[in-house]
Amino acid sequence: MPFIASNKLLFHCEWNGPEDAPVLVLSNSLGTNLSLWDPQIPAFEKNFRVLRYDSRGHGESGVTLRDYSVEQLARDVLGLLDALTLDRVHFCGLSIGGMTGMWLAAHAPERLNKLILANTSPQIGNAQAWNARILAVRSAASTKSVAPSVVERWFTPEFRATNPDAVAKTKEMIESTNPDGYMASCAAVRDFNFWPEVTAIHAPTLAIAGAHDAAVPPADVQRLAREIPGAKYSELDAAHISNIEAAENFTSEVSTFLLASA
Question: Residues 73-90: pLDDT tens digits?
């Protein structure tokens, strides 16, 4: 089952964990593929049937050329759930994956159990910055032009110095992302402002921030947690890709939240 059709596109997916366990869907950040979640799989697969997928325009999934929207990315998820006959799932998304989770929780609440929003906000950055990144990728016809600066923002200097292999693997993911899919996804982030709608989210929610995250400052995630009724907040010693930089604590926080009875 490496590929599943959704919305007339093929999506690369991977299962881990026992077939009779509750399903946990993991959604990647911009410019990465499903291997982003490798650090979490050994723990998550003990208690969950884990579904990872490459989002539209990323990894081995199909690419369409026009600008994407977060709604479109969320409807891709709904199509996957329908194709797999999954009624309700837990959902954990990081960055643009978290934006996808917000839309799902507000517009398809009947499909979600618990929600984890990691290093994400209802609005990330500004149009000028996203347009500049799109232009850089378009001019080079490659994501290699932006990968070094992205990785520098994604990890703290200390982590980059002491974990070069993890940083190199992440940089390689960015560089190998289809430039058309990357630019179209940048447009989805650029055009997303969900602040007016986050109060409509009623799924039990855990919001995770990175204490050193320049892309999504902790203050934004704290506000997100305040706006979502009953949401929990956790702050990790990491920058933007907290599931890698603070892998053990990230995994523990998510597992504890999902396994709690309330």
Answer: 999 999 999 999 999 999
State yes or no: pLDDT of 1 exceeds 80.
Answer: no
Calpha distance 14→38 (Å, rounded): 11
Residue 262 clears pLDDT 60, i.e. is over it: no
Contact 109, 86 (CB under 8 A): no
Identify the band that residue 261 occupies on the pLDDT scale cut at 50, 70 and 90: confident
DSSP string, the chain: --EEEETTEEEEEEEES-TTSPEEEEEPPTT--GGGGGGGHHHHHHHSEEEEEPPTTSTTS----SPP-HHHHHHHHHHHHHHTT---EEEEEETHHHHHHHHHHHH-GGGEEEEEEES--SS-S-HHHHHHHHHHHHHHTSGGGTHHHHHHHHS-HHHHHH-HHHHHHHHHHHHHS-HHHHHHHHHHHHT---GGGGGG--S-EEEEEETT-SSS-HHHHHHHHHHSTT-EEEEES-SS-HHHHTHHHHHHHHHHHHHS--
End-to-end CA distance of the chain: 33
Q: Which pLDDT tens digit goes with each residue over 100-119?
A: 999 999 999 999 999 999 99
CA 133 to chain centroid: 19
